[in-house]
Design a protein that fits this description.
elongated, alpha+beta, Rieske Iron-sulfur Protein, 2 helices
Length: about 230
Amino acid sequence: MSEQEREAPDAEEAAAPAEGAEAAAAEKRPARPGAASAPHGPAAAVVLPQRVPGSPIVSRRRVLQVGFWTSIGAMLAGAGACGLEIIYPSTVTGFGGTVSVPASAVPAPGQKVQIASGRFWLVNLSEEQGGPGLLALWWRCPHLGCTVPWRPTFNWPDPATGALKAGWFRCPCHGSTYTDAGVRVFGPAPRSMDTMAISVAGNGDLTVDTGNRVNGGPDNPDRAIRI
């Protein structure tokens, strides 16, 4: 073997480390602008929490959030429905609407009965009381709004005869006094008791429209509805 052949492997071995050094230097050099670069992975690993068996699927915070917004929505919906009912009432009964009185509840002539749902007195006037006929008298005193009761044992001079008569509507607040027909005879009230519209069905049942009220006056007996 010649001297040149023995030196050739040594040259190849020397070249290999040089190539490795050049590759390492190339990796350390910054990439030129616009040059393509090899794809890289995420800067930090994303670790997804693993559900522990037996733990709730929905968190307590999420349950509270859903419950809170559901409650708010329900309250807003309820408020809206109430507003629509006030503006466009579907059915109005009781005071401010119509009140039904069955024929069996109509008092006998000369008698009267309180109808609490409509806040009125249903009076069946006899001829001596200015009738015959039915009146619905709003029990609110025209003076200051006190509820006026019927006092069967209260005595007061009858303006028609001047003699004492038992049985009057008498306001407990300031003493305004009214006849069976609600006509004012004494007190600070500015007028007689107000009346409500009455309609009579064929079977004798009554419907009183408490929203249809007329200021009371001396002609209250003439407003009585015959049955």
